[in-house]
Write a structure and sequence with these properties.
heterodimer, A: alpha+beta, Cytochrome Bc1 Complex, Chain A, domain 1, six-stranded mixed beta sheet, five-stranded mixed beta sheet, 16 helices, 11 strands, B: five-stranded mixed beta sheet, 15 helices, globular
Chain lengths: ~425, ~425
């Protein structure tokens, strides 16, 4: 049995349309609460990117029982912190409160999710803030690189082609009725997962969750959005100049796989061997540590539904962009050829399993682990098996995964920053 | 409904402490909820210890401490910590340079040994210095892409005319490019010694066991010479200072205000932290954050549609530093109107105490924000070390008590003492086409 599995026990239940998972850690004063609503970009109507974030942000602007200012004051009365982020297939309300305040915090969260006011003045405020953020992103090298990369990697109509912030025209045109419909069909219709970790007794936490979310309305689940398989057929490259910047942001990436794909664990190991960590992976060691070309270089593989991004990101002086890219691709070719030493694989195994243990130091870290397990139905014994699964990944599997998903001649490459020299 | 309380209401962890013969002070506290230990080494050297011509030296040196010792050549430390799955990093600020690693508990003796080794034996190799120089330039260039950094750097430089705080921390690009290797090594020998450092250990072992292990590793090191004192007191400011940055590299106009504040050991410091919460909440003001929206500046600026984000923070520094406010405006925002509204709110909070209900809300946010990070082992170790670095408190528990003792009138008094036109610096960032 893995260390992680021994270190926490998950108690499960349901509350309305939420699957609830609780981990009790006596001695902590707070509770980390992750409420994942299965209403991210994946749930957006075709051609309406930005609706999911607009709706999710508007939930926190007042309810049927109190206006936005009163709801915000009630949250601050608890000293709780909460924020809403929308991603590929979920919108996550991440909160933390003092343990005795958990019932009150969950009651506020439930009010927002189940009975939002979606008042027009508050929606206008969210709309204006979103448009400002889109404009800011248009002059932010990371934001531009991300937008360009998505446009190169995903075909028109794909839910991940736009950033979660959405398209400005869609955000400008969205009506309160659009958001009400999205709330009713996607947020209430699909439900989600609630994870609570911290200084609470599981029975109390489950009771609090049930009491808060008991009035979740019944109804048939919304139909799944059909998303065709995407592919990057040839090398796609685009550089966009962002004026008055000194550094270029680069994204070099491929289309990954759904989290439920049985090859996902091997992909995480392959990712670690290749570029996941600036200091522990091959690409970072060469690009930063040996050649001094970049301050940061890392790669991530999205744990989501469908084909999320498997992408390398780096910040590079414009004069070093080409060399940093060439070096990264050269390191990829080493992985593809299986020319890396066993030591690299051992390091990847050790780092990924060691991180599982270190994540136990934080209620937020445990909550993230449990959320992934619950969201993707990885099974109640997932963390019993997970460390062993990582260690079982062979060099041959790493090479096979890389050859399947990371071809060295077919990727999307986005560069944003000063003119390239 | 009622909850069975299994959470302590406050953290009563006065750390165990031990001073070694070489002057190094060790602090240790147990945290038994996870099988990890967090090891932090704090050096009393940062931007304030630098002179013009070599600004950024402390930060540059921080990078070089990862480049090997005779015992652990370059790559050893990274590889070992990666192998343990460690959470590790380092940072430099105005006052200190700090190295930390949170590791599985059975690995902490190795983490301590790595830190003890590089305290006196870093190579600071000339070739590695050249390779790292471009990395640090890249780090600076990444920061320069952010208008908030650019404006903040300018604002601090005008706020301080004599004190080295005005130089910032990362240093100018030109000085990074010409930083001499021998100068770095001299800086290292001058400031990296047991007598100019302390160690914080928090985690899943007995406090005495943690201290014993650290004492065994650090005890044999030579004490080193006492670090030279910083003698550049900032003279009183006698009027408002203003700075404007115009660049295309940003879409949102910014307004920053900074007021001089006392050093962290001043009795008013907890009230200044409460003041920041009253003005802008405790969670940083990002658009995605729902908390802090009952704060005064949020209501005045963001809820009214003039700004998209607002944040406020009180410094926790060795020498008198700054209380800072930043508002991100709408793309077509009016700097003048936003600045006027901020000043109006500052005058109001300086003239009338918070009402009972508002004060209770601010107090709860303040205490909760202090509790949350302490629920992670890494966060608890950082918080303890941070308080010790500036002398703000000798334990998290003591700091909690000082925050809990702040009254509504303390907040008003702190505001009245701080928000003085004569000690104000104002910065505007104006996007250009």
């Amino acid at each position: 049995m893995s260390v992680a599995a021994r270190a926490f026990e998950v108690e499960r239940g349901t509350a309305g349309r939420l699957r609830v998972a609780v981990v009790s850690i006596p001695g902590l004063r707070s509770v980390a609460a992750l409420l994942a609503l299965e209403a991210g970009q994946w749930s957006e109507p075709a051609g309406r990117p930005g609706i999911a974030r607009l709706a999710a942000q508007s939930l926190l602007r007042g309810t049927a029982a109190r206006d936005g200012a009163s709801w915000a004051a009630a949250l601050d009365d608890l000293g709780a912190v909460a924020r809403m982020d929308v991603g590929g297939h979920v919108a996550i309300l991440s909160g933390q409160c003092l343990a005795p305040d958990l019932p009150a915090y969950l009651a506020l969260a439930a009010e927002a999710v189940l009975r939002p006011a979606l008042a027009s003045d508050q929606v206008e405020l969210v709309r204006a803030e979103t448009i400002a953020a889109i404009e800011e992103d248009a002059r932010n090298t990371r934001g531009v690189a991300d937008r360009v990369w998505r446009e190169l990697a995903y075909p028109a109509g794909h839910p991940f082609r736009s950033r979660p912030l959405g398209d400005e025209a869609v955000v400008r045109a969205a009506t309160v009725a659009d958001l009400r419909e999205f709330h009713s069909r996607e947020i209430l219709g699909r439900g989600g997962v609630l994870v609570l970790v911290g200084g609470i007794r599981p029975a109390d936490a489950l009771d609090a969750a049930r009491e808060a979310f008991a009035s979740w309305p019944d109804g048939a689940p919304a139909a799944e959005r059909a998303v065709p398989q995407a592919a990057i057929a040839t090398l796609q490259r685009r550089a966009e100049v962002v004026p008055d910047k000194t550094q270029s942001d680069v994204i070099l990436g491929w289309l990954g796989m759904p989290r439920r794909d049985p090859r996902f664990v091997a992909a995480r190991v392959a990712n670690m061997v290749f570029a996941a960590d600036t200091f522990a992976s091959r690409a970072g060691k060469v690009v930063r540590d040996k050649l001094g070309l970049a301050y940061y270089l890392f790669s991530t593989i999205a744990a989501t539904r469908g084909q999320g991004a498997w992408a390398v990101r780096m910040g590079v002086n414009p004069k070093n962009v080409e060399r940093a890219i060439e070096t990264t691709v050269a390191e990829l070719r080493v992985v593809l050829a299986g020319d890396f030493p066993q030591e690299d694989l051992d390091l990847a195994h050790d780092k990924l399993t060691g991180e599982l243990r270190v994540a136990l130091e934080s209620p937020g870290g445990i909550a993230q682990m449990v959320l992934e397990q619950e969201l993707f139905d990885l099974g109640p014994d997932h963390y019993v098996r997970y460390a062993d699964q990582i260690r079982a990944v062979t060099k041959g599997q790493v090479v096979e995964i890389a050859r399947t998903f990371l071809p060295a001649d077919r990727y999307a490459l986005a560069i944003a920053g000063p003119p390239l020299r | 409904m009622t909850m069975t309380e299994i959470a302590p209401r406050r953290l009563a962890d006065v750390p165990a402490a031990r001073r070694l013969d070489n002057g190094l002070v060790l602090y240790a506290a147990e945290a038994r909820h996870a099988p990890v230990v967090s090891v932090w080494v704090w050096y009393h050297v940062g931007g304030r210890n630098e002179v013009p011509g070599t600004t950024g030296m402390s930060h540059f040196l921080e990078h070089m401490l990862f480049k090997g010792t005779p015992l652990h050549p370059k790559g050893d430390l990274d590889r070992l910590l990666a192998r343990y799955g460690a959470l590790w990093n380092a940072f430099t600020n105005e006052d200190v340079t700090c190295y930390f690693e949170t590791v599985p508990k059975e690995r902490y003796p190795t983490a301590i040994e790595l830190e003890a080794d590089r305290m006196r034996s870093a190579l600071i190799d000339a070739g590695e210095t050249e390779a790292e120089r471009t990395v640090i330039v890249s780090e600076r260039e990444g920061l320069e892409n952010d208008p908030s950094f650019l404006l903040g750097e300018e604002l601090v430089s005008v706020a301080f005319t004599r004190h080295t705080y005005g130089q910032g921390v990362i240093g100018s690009k030109e000085e990074i490019q010409t930083m001499p290797r021998d100068g770095l090594y001299a800086h290292y020998r001058r400031f990296y010694s047991p007598s100019n450092a302390y160690v914080v250990l928090v985690g899943d072992d007995g406090a005495e066991a943690l201290l014993d292990r650290a004492a065994a590793a650090f005890g044999p090191l030579e004490a080193g010479e006492p670090a030279p004192a910083v003698r550049a007191p900032e003279p009183p400011q006698h009027g408002e200072k203003r700075v404007v940055v115009r660049r295309a590299g940003g879409a949102l106009p910014l307004v920053q205000l900074a007021f001089k504040t006392p050093r962290a050991t001043d009795p008013s410091t907890p009230a200044l932290h409460a003041l920041a919460v009253a003005l802008a909440g405790s969670s940083g003001g990002a658009q995605e954050a729902a908390s802090g929206r009952s704060s005064r500046l949020y209501r005045a600026l963001v809820a009214s549609g003039l700004a998209t984000e607002v944040e406020a923070s009180a410094g926790l520094n060795k020498d008198p530093f700054l209380f800072s406010i930043e508002a991100s405006l709408r793309p077509d925002g009016d700097h003048r109107a936003v600045e006027a509204l901020i000043l109006e709110e500052l005058a109001r909070i300086a003239s009338e105490p918070l009402g009972e209900r508002e004060f209770a809300r601010v107090r709860k946010q303040l205490l909760a924000a202090n509790a949350f990070p302490s629920d992670t082992v890494t966060g608890r170790a950082f918080r303890l070390g941070q308080l010790l670095s500036t002398g703000a408190a000798s334990s998290i528990g003591e700091w909690y008590e000082r925050l809990a003792a702040v009254t509504a009138d303390d907040i008003r008094t702190a505001a009245a003492a701080t928000f003085d036109e004569r000690s104000r610096s104002v910065g505007w960032f104006t996007p250009t086409a």
